[in-house]
UniProtKB/TrEMBL annotation:
It comes from Deinococcus psychrotolerans. This is PaaI family thioesterase. Residues 45-123 form the Thioesterase domain. The keyword Hydrolase applies. One of its GO terms (molecular function) is 1,4-dihydroxy-2-naphthoyl-CoA thioesterase activity.
Amino acid sequence: MARGEYAPPPIGDTLGFRLPREADVQDGQVTFYLTPEEFHYNPIGSVHGGVYAALLDSALGCCIHTKLPAGVGYTTLDLAVKYLRPLKVGMGEVRAVGKVISVSQRVATAEAQILDAAGKVCATATTTCLILRPAAKGANG
């Protein structure tokens, strides 16, 4: 996706993410971007927590994806988010940086932060993902 060879997921368009460029994807680390807009707001006048969570979950999952061979997938088992600062219109672009902590045969863990333009931490998150490896030929259910 970062090279433009595959279509980006629709969630990026829906929520207004700027998907990673090739330079934003490294072995075990991925960065996503978002400029807070009014359509992201909750009733109290700041970006809805679900937007933070979706941005963080994207960075977390994709950083784990960089450590997996072709044909191996993953799914989120848990996502823990800590909201530290509000995201608001006019603050400029923020970035979510996901970094792998560990990948084993069955489970991967990662951590991420949303950072504002000054590098202040606005939110943190951790995840545990189940690794989905294809079944061996002839293996029983």
